[in-house]
Structures are given as C-alpha cells and as structure tokens.
Amino acid sequence: MPVASPHCSTNSTPPRNCADGTAQIIILDVPTYNSCIWEGLGNKAMPSVLSAAHFHDEEAAYAYVEARVWPEGRVCPHCGVVERSGRLQGKSNRLGLYKCYACRKPFSVKVGTVMESSHIPMNVWLQAMHLIVSSKKGISAAHFHRTLGITLKSAWFLSHRIREAMTEGYVRSAGQRLQCRRRKAR
Predict the structure, then answer these.
(1) Distance CA 121, CA 149 (A)
(2) Model pTM score
C-alpha cells in the first residue's frame, strides 16, 4: 500500500494520487466552536431559541404576541373596532392593557385566548407553549412546575389550557369560561 507523501496538500482537493504515485490522505474538517459563524456573530455559537427576549421579559412577550394576534392593528374583542384604542398607563394598570374608545371597555391581547383570566406572566405562557410543542411525548404538570418555577396548581392549569387549545376545532370567544373535561370513574 502506498504511503502518503509529505509534500501532498491535504487542504486542497487535488487528484487522488500525488504526482509521485503515493496516496493522498484526506482529513475531514470537524467543526469546532470557533468555526461556527452565524449571520455575523463572529466566533460565537448559534444562539438558542429560548434565548429570545420574549421568553424572558414580559413586556417583550406582550409585543411578540400582539404582533401576531393583531398584524393589521389592534382590534377590540368586545365591539370589533380597529385602531380606536389607546394604551392605559399608570401605576394601577397592568401591562398590555388597552381601552377601546368606541365601547369604552378595557382589553388586552389575552382576551379570547387560553391566557385570558390568568395571573401567569405572558413570558411563562410562551415558554410553556414552546416546551409543549417541541416535546415528543408531552410534558407533565410536575415537569412544568420544576422547569418554569411556578406552583404545581398553576402548572396543571397552564398545561390543561394549552392542551385544550391544541384540540381540533377549538374556538373561544371573549369572556367564555374554559371547562376542563373530567374523566368518568371506572
């Protein structure tokens, strides 16, 4: 068997045999941390999906959800008027609260969704939704309790609401209470 010649280049792709009849050894490049280049980040590794701002900051989470629920402007869920609302600001108002100038009722992006009438922060809802849809076999309430740092009761509530929203044909109107189906005892 021929031996590799020391003057043969392994970085380029010359023919299989060198000019002197020896075999060429091809060394495959193994990517390292320094070779990960992702859209101008230089020597940094590709960021995780969970490092996005809407998973860690409640204000960014509201902005993220509002951009997806209202792509053409805010719509009042009570009367249906578009863009005739303003943000309620002040110390006593909660984050993401708007007031419709047509019907004079307050609303947020949570109205009419599974997140309505919930005290769980929006960024925790988004983390839970991401965990449920990205897991192969599902996630228990106890796992949510440990991972998200919420109570077991809140984790159960959160997981059941998300699973209910994932059912086929799910529609919820503003103010409607979500009924959890109970299994019959055998």
Answers:
(1) 12
(2) 0.65
**Cα separation, 104 vs 99, whole angstroms:** 6
Evaluate whether residue 99 is within a structural domain. yes
The 10 Å Cβ neighbour count of residue 125 is 22
Segments forming the whole domain that contains residue 84: 71-108
Q: Residue 106: which H helix or E strand, with range? A: strand 106-107
Q: Does residue 185 belong to any structural domain of this protein?
A: no
From first to last of its 186 residues, what are the pLDDT tens digits of the chain? 555 444 444 444 444 555 565 554 444 444 444 444 445 555 566 677 777 778 888 899 999 999 999 898 889 988 888 888 888 887 888 888 999 999 999 999 998 888 988 899 999 999 999 999 998 888 999 999 999 999 999 999 999 999 988 888 777 655 544 444 444 555
> Are both 162 and 125 inside the same structural domain?
yes
Does residue 32 sit in helix, strand or coil? coil
